[in-house]
Amino acid sequence: MKEKRNMWGIVLILCAAFVLINQYNIFGSINLFKILISIALVIVTMSGVKHRDFPTILFPIAFIIILFDKELGLQALTPFPILVAALLASVGLTLLFPKSFRSDSKRRIIDLDDEHTEYSSTTDSEVRYSVTMGSGIKYINSSDFKSATLYNSFSGSKIYFDAAKVPSGHAVINVELSFSGLELYIPREWNLIQNIDCFLGGVEIKGTPVASGGPTVELNGRAKFGGITIYYV
Q1: pLDDT by residue (tens digit) across 148-207?
Q2: pLDDT band for position 98 (cuts 50, 70, 90)
């Protein structure tokens, strides 16, 4: 998080410098707005490369091509052909190189690439769950819940935490979402702290938590081209 804050801080300072310098018409006919947007898109692309998230790599590149289609002589590819190509390539690469989660306790790969709805439940303290090009419903029934890592790509999932207990008073839910919808059913007694980084996505909350001195649960991760809905139950 600190590295990300530093990176965006430098970008904002550079943008401020561009705005001031542009008042002297140094850049001529170059559109300053396009330059600033492109800088942000390049940073998003770098983040996608780091996390091997193909939609986050390809779609910012497509948007940059759309912004500079005249300069690049690629008007015939914009906007819809390049966006469709980015979507199809993202799906294809995700299918060819799906992400996997390795369980620290059992040292095994859990990879659910289903075209149907997957129903499952677990009593494990540490949960790993991945759905690609499908849908899933998972029930967390742990009596000592500590962490969950959820990955969704081109999919939809519902995760129920209403039966999970956190005797330690602290737990973590890590989420990585792209072109997907994720529904989380959270006990009203949990003190949920959100740290979701959204890019063309968002977090919606339904229901109201109760101030009961319950456990603190951190919700961390990224949502790109998708949405997370939190239900307090």
Answers
A1: 999 888 888 899 999 999 999 999 999 988 888 899 999 999 999 999 888 777 889 998
A2: low
Residue 99: the pLDDT is 60
Give CA–CA dist 194/221, Å, rounded. 9
Tell which residue, 35, 41, 76, has the closest CA to residue 62: 41
Using CA atoms, how far residue 185 sits from 6, 123, 162, 176, 222, in Å, is: 33, 16, 6, 17, 18
Q: Which two tokens stand for residue 187?
A: 């006990």
Residue type present at position 69: D
Helix, strand, coil percentages, rounded to 5, for the chain: 35, 35, 30
C-alpha–C-alpha distance, residues 43 and 137, integer Å:
34
Q: Strand pairing partners for 221?
A: 175, 196
Closest C-alpha among 79, 86, 78, 74 to residue 44: 86
| Residue 119, pLDDT score | 64
Mutual angle of helices 54-67 and 32-51, in 10-degree steps: 160
CA distance 123 to 165: 10
**The two structure tokens encoding residue 73:** 């002589």
Q: For residues 223 and 204, is the Cβ–Cβ distance under 8 A?
A: no
Whole-angstrom distance, CA of residue 165 vs CA of residue 145:
6
The 3-state DSSP class for residue 78 equals coil
